[in-house]
Every structure is written in C-alpha cells, then in structure tokens.
Amino acid sequence: MKGVSETTRIPSRGTSLPVLSRDEAPAGGGWLPSAGSPFSAPPQKGKGFRGLIPLAPHGHDRAMDALTAFGLFAVTFMLICYVLEDRAPFWTFLFALGCLMGSAYGFLQGAWPFGAVELIWFVVALRRWVGLRSRAEPRA
User: Residue 41: what are its φ and ψ, rounded to 5°?
Assistant: First the structure.
C-alpha cells in the first residue's frame, strides 16, 4: 500500500491497520495517527477512552449477542411498564418483573452493582403492587 510507513496490530480483531504520517496522508485527508501520536497504540484496558469503550462486544463486528438483546428487551420492557404504571396495578407488577429481568441481566453480564440495584427495585415495586392491589380489591 502506497504511503504506509508501518502497521498497528489490533489484538482483539487479529488484524493490522496501516498507520500514515501527516506527510503520507491522502490529499483529501483521512489520515490515521502516526506512530508518535498518543492515539496510534492499540487500545489497552485502563489506558484512556480507547481502552474503556469497546467498539463491539466480544470481538463481533456489529452483531448483538443474546445477552445484550435480553438486556435491551428487559430495560425497554421496564421503561414501557413504568410509563403505564398509573393506568392499572398490573403495570406495577409487570414493572417489577422488568426489574427482575434487569437484575438477571446485570448479574449475568458481570455488573453485579446494577444487578443488586435492580433486585432492590424489584422488591420495592412488588411491595408497591401488593399495596395497590389490596386497595383496589373491595373488602367483604
């Protein structure tokens, strides 16, 4: 490749990308950082924003794995139920189930603080649903 001075290996992808200096850049721009730039090194965990924000989980290009899809469903379901909570007590119960799904997602993906907080929200929402249900039922 013309104008390529070196390549940078991306360990998670198993590929190499060309690194161009400013002098070797195409006329229309689009240059990659040169070897002396702080952005030219491969991402390392804990080393700036490039190591903290992965482009795709688990080395996939653009695919969403089943756990991520479950998490997206759980949070979306929880949000919809939260918005509709004032309409009927069963929406509060469904919100509690959404919190339980969110908790399961948090624990499964390794974010135990998120899982613990969602578990607490599940208990709070379930207790709220029991209170709403008891007020809604006529006493004999």
Answer: -75, 150
